């Protein structure tokens, strides 16, 4: 199994910040009038602040940012890989809300010390106490490496043997991706010369550490998608697996692979869309953000995405100034080759949408409940529940007749909706376990036997909570409609009488 990079060793180029007062994790976008400007890191933002990739220059940059803030001590800053910012931000936010030793340790790995603290620690290390020998502290935080691989350890001869010059991959940005442990997204022309046999093809490049410590260049040539290997690290592909990889690009399920150490690792498998090379990713390392493009993932969607399934969600476009964002429906899936979620397009999107519609047909017989605790649910509420949404219900009564309200959710296969009190709903919403609720607009007035109230059954508008009789205005409207109804009946009766043929009168006989 191809080893994946350790994110703690990758280049950190996005600055996250924790506000100790608000208990939030945000991404830094700048400083204005001494106030820190931030953006939601769980959204796709192009205007986030990208920090310099060189250690010395970053120190100067961060010191300048720190000095511009009016109250810098209320913030904690973290330097995080750009391609991993959403996963890390979601993990940090959960740790802030529910602190754990493990979560706090992960945050400490990324934290950036403010200049005054860093200088103080440096002076303490440089000036040991009298009578003591200066020792290297064993528990001092180590400087995070900027790259997974050291550029000086690369075997440039192996690159030259492929017909590629160092300057070529430096100028097009491929070397930076390789040093961070990734396979390049661009391809280059690679030449092989084996004795009297020569071969050339377009390939992506990556780095790998050899047993002797050298860092060698690996070539990933473009393969024929119709000739995929039948086995992959101990797993034999079924026909369904092969079809899914060829058509969708992702296997869509978890399988056990055997790594080079002989360990069984539950993994997801995907196909590189450019080279058709297979790639794997450990299932236990899959991280799903709480939100993406305006869509908050439900617990069911998170579970399905972690299993490698494609999930159809409703996303929002970026709102232009003065306009509202547009909503669009699209499938999303975790890609092992990219090591992150990806939106599916074209034929891959059509396959996922067709499968989604088929699943909806199969679950169509599992009807959403039409009532909840004697209260009728509107069609809008039923549709919301069917889509995994949340509905607010008011006017409910307990055994003592005391009114109360709450929130309900429903999953296919459940006989009754699940109920939450407002406090529980607020917590679930903050943790991203439920969607924002819609109001169940129509409420049915009922008496103690649960039958429809005769005084209100003919009203077309919604009753207020616990209302059992119509108001004065509603009564007038009700009487007026009844009078109009009686007038129409009388007019119809008179017209029928007029339209009846009159009986012919007989003439008197002549004498």
UniProtKB/TrEMBL annotation:
<dbReference type="InterPro" id="IPR025222">
    <property type="entry name" value="DUF3945"/>
</dbReference>
<feature type="domain" description="DUF4099">
    <location>
        <begin position="149"/>
        <end position="230"/>
    </location>
</feature>
<feature type="domain" description="DUF3945">
    <location>
        <begin position="374"/>
        <end position="422"/>
    </location>
</feature>
<protein>
    <submittedName>
        <fullName>DUF4099 domain-containing protein</fullName>
    </submittedName>
</protein>
<feature type="region of interest" description="Disordered">
    <location>
        <begin position="379"/>
        <end position="398"/>
    </location>
</feature>
<dbReference type="Pfam" id="PF13101">
    <property type="entry name" value="DUF3945"/>
</dbReference>
<feature type="compositionally biased region" description="Basic and acidic residues">
    <location>
        <begin position="451"/>
        <end position="460"/>
    </location>
</feature>
<dbReference type="InterPro" id="IPR025343">
    <property type="entry name" value="DUF4099"/>
</dbReference>
<dbReference type="Pfam" id="PF13351">
    <property type="entry name" value="DUF4099"/>
</dbReference>
<feature type="compositionally biased region" description="Basic and acidic residues">
    <location>
        <begin position="472"/>
        <end position="502"/>
    </location>
</feature>
<feature type="region of interest" description="Disordered">
    <location>
        <begin position="445"/>
        <end position="511"/>
    </location>
</feature>
<feature type="compositionally biased region" description="Low complexity">
    <location>
        <begin position="113"/>
        <end position="145"/>
    </location>
</feature>
<feature type="region of interest" description="Disordered">
    <location>
        <begin position="110"/>
        <end position="145"/>
    </location>
</feature>
């Amino acid at each position: 199994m191809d080893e994946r990079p350790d994110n703690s060793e990758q280049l950190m180029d996005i600055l996250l910040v924790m506000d100790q007062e608000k208990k939030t994790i945000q991404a830094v976008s700048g400083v204005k009038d001494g106030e820190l400007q931030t953006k939601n890191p769980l959204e796709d933002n192009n205007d986030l602040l990208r920090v310099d990739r060189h250690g010395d220059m970053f120190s100067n940059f961060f010191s300048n940012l720190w000095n511009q803030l009016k109250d810098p001590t209320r913030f904690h800053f973290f330097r995080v890989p750009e391609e991993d910012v959403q996963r890390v931000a979601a993990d940090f936010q959960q740790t802030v809300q529910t602190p754990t030793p493990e979560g706090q340790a992960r945050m400490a790995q990324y934290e950036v010390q403010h200049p005054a603290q860093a200088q103080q620690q440096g002076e303490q290390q440089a000036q040991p106490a009298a009578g003591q020998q200066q020792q290297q502290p064993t528990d001092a935080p180590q400087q995070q490496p900027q790259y997974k691989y050291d550029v000086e350890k690369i075997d440039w001869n192996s690159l030259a043997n492929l017909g590629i010059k160092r300057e070529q991959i430096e100028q097009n940005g491929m070397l930076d991706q390789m040093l961070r442990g990734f396979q390049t997204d661009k391809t280059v022309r690679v030449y092989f010369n084996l004795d009297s046999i020569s071969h050339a093809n377009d390939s992506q490049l990556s780095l790998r550490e050899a047993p002797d410590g050298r860092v060698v260049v690996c070539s990933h040539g473009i393969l024929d998608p119709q000739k995929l290997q039948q086995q992959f690290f101990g797993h034999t592909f079924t026909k369904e697996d092969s079809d899914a990889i060829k058509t969708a690009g992702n296997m869509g399920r978890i399988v056990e692979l055997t790594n080079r150490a002989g360990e069984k690792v539950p993994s997801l498998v995907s196909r590189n869309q450019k080279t058709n090379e297979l790639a794997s990713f450990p299932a236990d390392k899959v991280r799903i953000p709480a939100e993406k493009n305006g869509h908050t993932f439900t617990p069911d969607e998170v579970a399905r995405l972690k299993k490698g399934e494609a999930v159809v969600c409703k996303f929002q476009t970026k709102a232009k100034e003065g306009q509202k964002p547009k909503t669009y429906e699209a499938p999303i899936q975790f890609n092992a080759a990219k090591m992150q979620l990806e939106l599916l397009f074209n034929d891959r999107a059509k396959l996922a949408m067709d499968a989604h519609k088929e699943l909806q047909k199969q679950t169509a017989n599992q009807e959403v409940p039409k009532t909840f605790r004697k209260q009728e649910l509107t069609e809008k509420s039923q549709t919301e529940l069917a889509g995994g949404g949340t509905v607010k219900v008011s006017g409910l009564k307990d055994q003592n007749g005391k009114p109360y309200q709450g929130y309900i959710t429903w999953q296919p296969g459940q006989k009754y909706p699940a109920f939450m009190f407002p406090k529980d709903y607020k917590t679930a919403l903050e943790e991203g376990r439920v969607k924002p609720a819609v109001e169940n607009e129509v409420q049915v007035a009922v008496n103690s036997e649960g039958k429809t109230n005769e005084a209100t059954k003919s009203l077309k508008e919604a009753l207020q909570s616990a209302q059992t009789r119509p108001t004065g205005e509603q009564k007038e409207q009700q009487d007026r409609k009844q009078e109009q109804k009686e007038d129409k009946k009388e007019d119809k009766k008179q017209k029928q009488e007029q339209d009846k043929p009159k009986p012919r009168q007989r003439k008197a006989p002549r004498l």
